[in-house]
Amino acid sequence: SLVGGGGGDHSPLCGGRAAVRRPASALVVGPGAGASAVAAALHGRPEYGLRPVGLADTAPATEADGGALPLLATHEDIRRAVIQNSVGHAVFTRPPEADERTASLVRLFQDHGCRLWLADPAGTARITGMRVAHPTDQLWGYAVQPLLPRPARPLERWAKRGIDTALALVALLAAAPVMGACALAVRIWDGPGVIFRQERVGLYGRPFTLLKFRTLRADEHEAATRWTVAGDRGMSPVGSFLRKSSLDELPQLWNVVRGDMALVGPRPERPFFVAKFSTVHPGYEARHRMPVGITGLAQINGLRGDTSIEDRARFDNHYIDTWSLWQDLWILARTAASFFRFRLGGS
To answer: Which terminus of the chain faces fewer neighbouring Cβ atoms within 10 Å, N or C?
Structure first.
C-alpha cells in the first residue's frame, strides 16, 4: 500500500526510503483541530516521508490553531509558502469541493505540480469532484486517499480549441459586413478610434488584451477601476445599441483565433475587479481554471451587465465542473437564439 497498513509497518507516503531521509515539503489544508491533528501526525511520523511546513486554514481565523506551524490565512500566503518551501504535496482534511475557498486552492496546487491527498480525520468524507487514485488506506490511523482531478480529457480540450478556431474564423467572415457597419457607425457618431483595447484576466490569471468596438465617446473612456454598464451618460445611442445587442463583442472573435479566449467560458474581467471579487467571493478566482469566453452559462441565464457577481461565479464554476463539448454547443445555440430574438424584437 501507499501508506501504513497495519502492525506498525509503515511505508512512506511519498514512497521509498529516500523519502524518509529527505522528506518532501507539504501543506495541510483544512479548518480547525482536524487539520492541526493531521499536521501533528505527519510531523511526528517521519516514516511517511512528508514534512508539514504550514497549515492552510479554510475557516475563520478565530477557529484556527496552527501550533508550531505557520498559519496561512490568505490565498497569497499559501501561494508564497508553496514557492518558498518547494511544496510538493497538499494534504486536505476534507474533500476539496467542501467549500468554495478549499476548491479554489486545488488549481493553485496543481499549477505548482503538487500531489493531492485526502486525510480525513473523521473517516466520513465523500468525494464527488475528484477521483480516488488508489484504495483508501491509513495515515497513522487517519483514512487517507491519493487524489487526482477529474480526467483532463485532453482530446476533448484540443477538440474544443480546434472547433473554437474554426467557428471563429467562419464567424469573422460571415460577420464582416455587420462588423464593417458597426465600425462605420462608431466612426461617424463617436469619432476616431473604432476598436477599444483593454487588459483582462484570462486562463490561470494570465493577462491579455481584449478587443471590442468602442461604445463610449472619444472624450470618455472605460476606466480600469470603474464599473460601467449600458446606461452610462458617456455612452452614445450607437454605443448603447452595440452593448445591448452584444455587437460590440464581435472583435473578440479575433481574440478566440489568437488563443486568448474561447467561444464559451467565463467572461473575462479587468485585473482590479478580479482582485476585488476574489476577496469578496471565494469561488471567483476558481473561474480561471478554464479559458475565458465570449459567452457562457451565466450569460445565457441573464447574468450580464450589472448583475450578481456571486451568481455569475456560481454558474461559471458549475459550467467548468460539468464541461463537455455538447454543453458548449448548447450554450452557443442558446446565445445565437437570444441574439436573433433581440433583432426580431427590435429592443
So the answer is: C
